[in-house]
Design goal:
This protein is mainly β. A 16-stranded antiparallel β-barrel has the order 2-3-4-5-6-7-8-9-10-11-12-15-16-17-18-19. It is globular. It starts with a helix and ends with a strand.
């Protein structure tokens, strides 16, 4: 990160910290956060105080990576419940994120979670379109900076999953996953191939297949849990008969736990995550399991490490310092590899970092987050992220 960006970030953090010094400053923070939240439709609270008022939250999004430079955009979340739903139904969220970088790249993303009335059904999934560069280092856990190739491609992902509740907080179902990586080209010359060389045959793919899912969601809040457990297992089958260019399978296991460590600090939480993803058979390179980015191993850039298997664990302490202001301290470790038996401690990657939180919707415990992470291991890195809601 260049010095100008670093100084700007320090100034922003310092300003918000100073804003907590007295009551008038607290009121200033209240005024600022009110700019991000808007009610949708009729204010039903005037008729029935037990009913939920749908709202939209809008906030800035920013990232910085060497391959993309500074990325700026806007993120929005629609928070809603089915008509006449009460406390027995958790809040659904439909996020929309638009981002544009200084190198003329574009990304649109939505990862939605929708609870039906009484939580009898759960609809979740992802929708994404991007024309985005990627620092591609190849496959394996020992790739180095010299392996880097800057590529660009068009990606489209559609992944809806519909699940039925079969027991309290337990949902079972499935859906379809369609993911394409097209027009893969070399963004910059690597000395072996000229700039603009097509890499479609090597890295391009279409994945189309059936995905089965089991989810246990006992969190008190989907956007920023303070207590409860979350477990998700998915397994997808991709075949040429379904429209795929390769025959392969993908499995994912994601377990999270949220703990309140002290009754005297009810708004603080310790968040834990254990994550595994496995790619089987003839999996195309851009569908392999990865580490790096805003969710997994935040100290490294997106998809820095790539192979068939990802194993990762992280912890985050969420410290609610003031009513609207909070900080987090996080750390994680993991690796990628081709076989379970090849994992070893010598090649582990890990990160440490700190984050700043500005609460913009108190009723939903929803924050704008700023994270700065440092990555360590055989390779070192550092990255920052600005967006809405927590990393996990």
């Amino acid at each position: 990160m260049n010095s100008t960006l670093r100084k700007s970030l320090i100034l922003i953090l310092s300003s918000f910290f100073l804003c907590t010094a007295d009551l008038s400053a607290q009121k200033f923070v209240e005024t600022i956060t009110s700019w991000f939240e808007f009610n949708v439709g009729k204010n039903r609270l005037s008729e029935d105080t037990t009913l939920f008022v749908n709202r939209v939250v809008i906030a800035p999004v920013a990232t910085y990576e060497p391959s993309t430079s500074l990325g700026l955009g806007v993120g929005a979340k629609l928070l809603f419940k089915p008509k006449k739903s009460g406390l027995e139904t958790r809040t659904s969220n439909l996020p929309l994120s638009l981002q544009y970088t200084l190198k003329n790249q574009f990304i649109f993303y939505s990862g939605f979670t929708v609870f039906f009335d009484q939580e009898k059904y759960l609809l979740k999934g992802n929708l994404e379109f991007s024309k985005f560069p990627l620092s591609y280092y190849g496959i394996g856990n020992l790739t180095v900076e010299g392996d880097q190739r800057e590529i660009t491609f068009n990606n489209f992902l559609l992944q809806p999953l519909l699940l039925r509740r079969v027991a309290p907080n337990l949902f079972v179902g499935g859906g379809w996953r369609y993911n394409t990586n097209r027009r893969v080209e070399l963004l910059e010359s690597d000395g072996e191939l000229p700039e603009g060389t097509s890499l479609q045959d090597e890295l391009g793919s279409t994945s189309s297949g059936i995905e089965f899912a089991v989810t246990y969601d006992g969190r008190d809040n989907v956007l920023n849990a303070q207590k409860g457990n979350f477990l998700e297992f998915t397994h997808g089958f991709y075949q040429e008969a379904f429209g795929s260019t390769h025959n392969f399978m993908l499995s994912k296991l994601d377990f999270r736990q949220y703990l309140q460590l002290s009754p005297n600090r009810p708004y603080d939480a310790l968040a834990l995550q254990w994550f595994a993803r496995m790619a089987w058979n003839d999996t195309p390179p851009l569908e392999l399991s990865t580490l790096g980015g805003p969710a997994l191993l935040r100290g490294f850039q997106d998809n820095r490490f790539r192979d068939k298997i990802t194993l990762f664990a992280q912890a985050e302490y969420r410290w609610q310092t003031f009513e609207r202001i909070g900080f987090v301290f996080f750390g994680g470790l993991g690796d990628v590899n081709a076989k379970f038996g090849d994992f070893n401690f010598a090649n582990l990657k890990y990160d440490l970092g700190i984050g700043f939180r500005l609460k913009i919707v108190q009723s939903e415990n929803l924050n704008i987050r700023f994270d700065y992470g440092f990555g360590f291991g055989p390779e070192n890195d550092r990255n920052f992220y600005l967006g809405i809601a927590e990393s996990f």
